[in-house]
TrEMBL record:
It comes from Komagataeibacter saccharivorans. Keywords: Hydrolase, Metal-binding, Pyridine nucleotide biosynthesis. InterPro entries: Isochorismatase-like_dom (IPR000868), Isochorismatase-like_sf (IPR036380), Isochorismatase_Nicotinamidase (IPR052347). GO terms for biological process: pyridine nucleotide biosynthetic process. This is nicotinamidase. It is an enzyme of class 3 (hydrolase). The lineage of its organism: Bacteria, Pseudomonadati, Pseudomonadota, Alphaproteobacteria, Acetobacterales. Belongs to the isochorismatase family.
Length: 195
């Protein structure tokens, strides 16, 4: 059972209004993750990082520009805000991604073209982080991309499967694919003290 210490980081991916039920790109069950992620905030992580998908109004990922997604998480809009129920007191770094109108950025670590990087890998290393735990949405897009980049950057990478939801794919298949790449899966109960 993994014991959380100061060399661990919690990554909270895109827990924004537009990804919650009723939002522009709703992920089923995303609202149920909020109390789960709030609970994790009580553990002694060395750093808690939250991301926000933060797009210009004419972003390349939007259908009106031939992209796969409805308009979502437009910078500064209500839909781009973090869930109001998410406990923000523990968030040490708030990272916005997808700001460039011509390239999407699923991963917290950089753009999909793998050229533009956010610097998160260096930031984590500088803070002495060796292991990252991933939570949030969507498991099949931004969580998976972030987990792959974390693993590639040399961090021990753990997806907290019951603190994530997929938008399209079956979560089991995604976790299986990630596991084959060296990314582990654990449940929140593995980290939290028994009630
Ligand atoms: C996401 C699709 C488009 C995500 C963001 O957070 O997984 N998915 N933009
Ligand atoms: Zn997006």
């Amino acid at each position: 059972m993994p014991v959380v210490t100061a060399t661990d980081a919690l990554l909270i991916i895109d827990m924004q209004v537009d990804f919650l039920p009723g939002g522009a790109l709703a992920v089923t069950g995303a609202d149920a993750l909020v109390p789960v992620i709030n609970q994790l905030g009580h553990l002694p992580f060395g750093l808690v990082v939250a991301t926000q998908d933060w797009h210009p109004a004419d972003h390349v990922s939007f259908r009106k520009r031939g992209g796969p997604w409805p308009v979502h998480c437009v910078a500064g809009s209500e839909g781009a805000a973090l869930s109001p129920a998410l406990d923000q007191a523990r968030i040490g770094v708030l990272l916005r991604k997808g700001l460039d109108r011509d390239i999407d950025s699923y991963s917290a670590f950089g753009d999909n073209d793998r050229i533009g990087r956010t610097g998160l890998d260096g930031l984590l290393r500088d803070r002495g982080i060796t292991r990252v735990f991933l939570t949030g949405v969507a498991l099949d897009y931004c969580v998976a991309a972030s987990a792959r980049d974390a693993c590639r950057a040399g961090f021990d990478t753990v997806v907290l499967h019951d603190a994530c939801r997929s938008v399209k794919a079956m979560s089991g298949r995604i976790l299986e694919a990630l596991r084959a790449e060296g990314i582990r899966a654990a449940s929140c109960a593995d980290l939290l003290p028994a009630p």
